[in-house]
Specification:
Helix content: 55-70%
CATH topology of the largest domain: ABC transporter involved in vitamin B12 uptake, BtuC
Radius of gyration: 33 Å
CATH class of the largest domain: Mainly Alpha
Mean pLDDT: 79
Largest sheet: 3 strands, antiparallel
Distance between the termini: 58 Å
Low-confidence stretches: 1-24, 26-30, 468-493
Strand order of the largest sheet: 1-3-2
Structural class: mainly alpha
Shape: elongated
Order of helices and strands: HHHHHHHHHHHHHHHEHHEEHHHH
């Protein structure tokens, strides 16, 4: 995380060397869109750079701390604290009589801490579930904040207080004092994560285990909630109390879909949070009068949606494609297994299977069987000539593998799990399609390389699988299993 500190300090140094060409970001908008874009990326306006650095720091803080909330399944607590700080902001303004950052920060922190303690008290002393308690605290504090905000705006000069910017955020309102406060909070958050990273990681995944190994879970929880409160308070400046929870959760949820390990998740979430902050500032610069927060949340959501759909392991469409592929592969392998059973009943004396015979074996109509055969043909596992089907070498090999998987697993369940032989077929029907070579080899070693299954049927061995690579494997004399059969098998297939 050291590079993040250097990154923030670097932008801070740039800030103090820039000329002061504009007081606020809303005052630097030119008429021509291209000129506006060039002016933004030239970073020659002090207000633009201040707003950009503030949004980057907020995105960094929210991206990092949101990961712990997502892992702990406390995503809505950010929304609760975010809404609860509004009365503290108003009280800080009333105390100072002006929109000074420090009194507002202190008031917001006190309100956030009070809300978190009230939430803990409600859940620990009553039967009210946590989600209901969060709704009570959120609505109560936010309602009080709206009342105070309305009172302030009705006072002389109150409509110019700028407190309404805390509802939806406005990075243009970031002052130098605000930036100092954001920098201090960022350093505090980074230092906490740096020195207590292992404790926070263990506590977030399993608090009970963390307590058993001596981690002070109470202190770790307080530290996390303190960092979260600080990040929310400085975050409402750019995002607003209404949308700060989205800034906390959306980048973290996106990172959760693409990374399995928390350290990697933290990095991805922090980068996405800063990208969202920069995008919101840019759009707010181009569109005078529009708040920054909605743009930040929109960008974070636009990143989340394709990730939700196409993430390598957890994307919805990718999962659908994997499930669809598994279903098609399972159907092909079941057809191959049925062809093997036909060969087996006939004592492996032929290399062809009739479509009607296969339909009877599969208990399907000829139309359904024909569709399955076309799938085999398209996969290179079989060829069709008239009403006869012939397996290719790769088709024969895969058929032997599926039958071998099925019968080894049946034998394992009977011998090692003590399940009756007439109760293992259905389970083997499911597991046979997912066993890989390493698992099968382990099963063979565990079962001492058996030759027959619980029903007395031969289990195809490695020699039978190797014959699948030979173009002669499907000749009657090339079917190695034929020598094991004295007569065709009768009864239930397995």
């Amino acid at each position: 995380m050291t590079y993040r500190i250097v990154f923030s300090l670097f932008f801070g140094i740039i800030l103090f060397t820039l000329p002061s060409e504009a007081a606020r970001i809303g005052e630097v908008v030119d008429t021509n869109l291209w000129e506006q874009i060039v002016r933004f990326f030239s970073f020659r306006d002090r207000a633009v750079v201040m707003a950009l650095i503030g949004s980057l720091l907020i995105g960094l803080n929210c991206g990092l701390l949101g990961c712990f909330m997502v892992v702990r399944r406390l995503s809505m607590i950010g929304d609760t604290i975010g809404h609860a700080v509004l009365p503290g902001v108003c009280l800080g303004y009333l105390f100072a009589g002006t929109r000074a950052p420090l009194p507002i920060f202190v008031g917001a922190i006190l309100a956030g801490v009070t809300a978190s303690y009230l939430l803990t008290a409600i859940t620990s002393t009553t039967r009210i579930p946590k989600d209901a308690a969060m709704g009570i605290v959120l609505s109560s504090f936010f309602g009080l904040g709206i009342v105070l905000l309305t009172y302030i705006q009705r006072q002389p000069g109150g409509n110019k207080s700028g407190l309404d910017k805390f509802l939806f955020g406005q990075s243009a309102a970031v002052s130098m004092q605000d930036l100092y406060l954001m920098g201090a909070v960022t350093l505090f958050v980074l230092a906490s994560l740096w020195f207590f990273h292992k404790e926070m990681l263990c506590f977030s995944f399993d608090s009970n285990y963390a307590s058993t190994i001596g981690i002070p879970t109470g202190l770790v929880n307080v530290l996390q909630m303190t960092c979260l409160s600080f990040a929310i308070v400085v975050g409402i400046q750019a995002v607003g109390v209404v949308l700060v929870s989205a800034m906390l959760i959306t980048p973290a949820a996106t990172a959760y879909l693409v990374r399995e390990r928390l350290p990697q998740m933290l990095r991805v979430s922090a980068i996405l949070g800063m990208m969202a902050g920069a995008f919101g500032t840019f759009c707010s610069f181009l569109s005078t009068g529009l708040p920054t927060g909605p743009f930040i949340v929109v960008f974070a959501t636009l990143i989340f949606i394709p990730t939700y759909l196409f993430a390598p392991r957890h994307g919805v469409l990718r999962k659908w494609w994997r499930n669809r592929s598994l279903q098609l592969r399972t159907a092909r392998e079941n057809t191959l297994k049925a062809i093997f059973h036909v060969f087996e009943k006939e004592g492996f004396v032929t290399e062809q299977v009739g479509l009607l015979e296969l339909a009877q074996q599969r208990r399907q109509s000829e139309e359904e069987v024909m569709k399955s055969i076309k799938e085999l043909e398209g996969s290179g596992f079989a060829t069709v000539s008239g009403e006869q089907l012939v397996l290719t070498p790769s088709g024969y090999q895969r058929a032997c593998e599926i039958v071998r998987n099925h019968r080894l697993w049946e034998l394992y369940l009977v011998n090692n799990v003590d399940i009756a032989a007439d109760h293992v077929h259905d389970n083997a029907e499911q597991i046979e399609h997912v066993l890989n070579h390493e698992m099968i080899h382990a099963l063979e070693k565990e079962l001492d390389f058996p030759e027959t299954d619980p029903h007395g049927k031969p289990i195809p061995g490695w020699d039978d699988l190797k014959r699948g690579s030979s173009t002669d494997s499907l000749k009657p004399e090339g079917l190695g299993l034929a020598s094991l059969y004295k007569r065709p098998f009768q009864g239930e297939d397995s």
